[in-house]
Amino acid sequence: MRRYDVNVLPFLLTRLKLDPATASAPLITSLADIAGVMIYSSIATWYLGLGAT
């Protein structure tokens, strides 16, 4: 995601008469969940030796 897109999100939500803090909470939660799954998978792959060698 480009930096411009992230910076425009609060202004877009304000223009749509939505509270940016409330509306962006699901996005932040989703990003945290995705990062957690990626880290978990990376550690499991490393620990089990399943990486490409």
What would you say this structure looks like, in words?
The chain contains two helices and no strands. By secondary structure, the chain is mainly α. It has one domain (3-48). Helix 1 (3-15) packs antiparallel against helix 2 (20-48). It is rod-shaped.
Which residues form runs of ≥5 with pLDDT under 50?
none
Summarize model confidence as the mean pLDDT: 82
| Distance N to C terminus | 30 Å
- Secondary structure class reads mainly alpha
- Note the run of SSEs as H and E: HH
**What is the gyration radius calculated from CA atoms?**
17 Å
* Dominant shape: rod-shaped
- How much helicity do the residues have? over 70%
How many discrete structural domains?
Answer: 1
- How many helical elements? 2
β-sheet strand percentage: under 5%
Number of strands: 0
Please describe the biggest sheet, giving its number of strands, its sense, and whether it closes into a barrel.
none
Name the descriptors.
0% strand, mainly alpha, rod-shaped
List the helices and strands and how they pair.
Elements: H1 3-15, H2 20-48
Helix pairs in contact: 1-2
Briefly, what is this?
With 53 residues, the protein is mainly alpha-helical. The chain has helices spanning 3-15, 20-48.
